[in-house]
Structures are given as C-alpha cells and as structure tokens.
Specification:
alpha+beta, Alpha-Beta Plaits
C-alpha cells in the first residue's frame, strides 16, 4: 500500500457537501481514507477575486500507481462537475496530490510532491495537522519546519474539526 496525501478544495456552491462527496468517491475509487484534517476556510490564493475556499487534507492508502491515481482524481473532479477553464479559477472541487509516499515524480502532466505546497499556508496548515514530521522528499525538511518558515500570511481559519 502507498501512503498518499491529497488536498481537497471547494469555493462554489455547498462547499461542505462537495468535500464530503469527494471523500466518498475517493474511498470508493482510490483507496482507504486513513485520516482527515479539520476543514479550514481561506481567502482565494492566486486569484483573489473569488469566493473563499474550504480546504481539507486526507491521508489515504492506495494500491494505485501515481499515474492511475491522477487519472482517478481527474475522473472524480469531472464526475462532480468541475470544469477547467481558467488557472486558479473558482471550482466546485479541486483535488491535488501533495505526496505519494516519498516518491518524486516529474512528468509533463504530473509533479509530486505538489510544486507549490511549501508556499501555501492553506495547504501546510491541514497537512501539518496530520503529519508534522513528514519529511518533504525534495526539500529535505519536516512539514512543521516548512510551515514555520512560510511567508504566506493568508489567514487560515479552522471551521470544522
């Protein structure tokens, strides 16, 4: 089994319901959800002219390869109604692969660890909640140290958890 961390995000419609639906579909099509962070609310990152996001990190166990994992993530997003028309645009659901064990994947359509995770408070706060001592395989630092050194000052508020 492979240990994977996923970030869920939603900033349109019934955001809580979309997170729950994504978790159900992930359990059904990707693998067992081992742990879930609290749900956090943040202002939009990258394109500030959007509604606030709800974000949550999941730790899952999967037998899927990184490529098959990406395929399933994209299918779940599409099934839930996500339409990709603008980078960092508003969305019903966004599922990012943060880590896949300690593997480094650098392909045209898949980069693991997620290339921006160490720059985003909305990602690191729920991730550190689940795995503060997890070592970033590229940066060779524990997640809690990456969070402490973070310059992103976007407010991240726990709303459920």
């Amino acid at each position: 089994m492979n240990r994977v961390f996923l970030l869920l995000g939603s900033n349109l419609g019934d955001r809580f319901s979309y997170l729950k639906q994504a978790i159900t579909l992930i359990s059904r099509h990707i693998g067992q959800v081992v742990r879930q962070s609290a749900v956090y609310e943040t202002a939009s990152w990258g394109n500030e002219q959007q509604p606030d996001y709800l974000n949550q990190v999941l730790e899952i166990e999967t037998k899927l390869s990184p490529e098959d994992l990406l395929s399933q993530v994209l299918k779940i997003e599409k099934t839930m109604g996500r339409i990709r028309h603008e980078k960092w645009g508003a969305r019903i659901i966004d599922i990012d692969i943060l880590f896949y064990d300690n593997r480094i994947v650098d392909e045209s359509d898949l980069i693991i660890p997620h290339p921006y995770l160490h720059q985003r408070r909305f990602t690191l706060v729920p991730l550190v909640e689940l795995a503060p001592d997890f070592m970033h395989p590229k940066l060779k630092q524990p997640l809690k140290e990456l969070l402490e050194a973070l310059t992103d000052n976007l407010e991240v508020r726990k709303v459920i958890g």
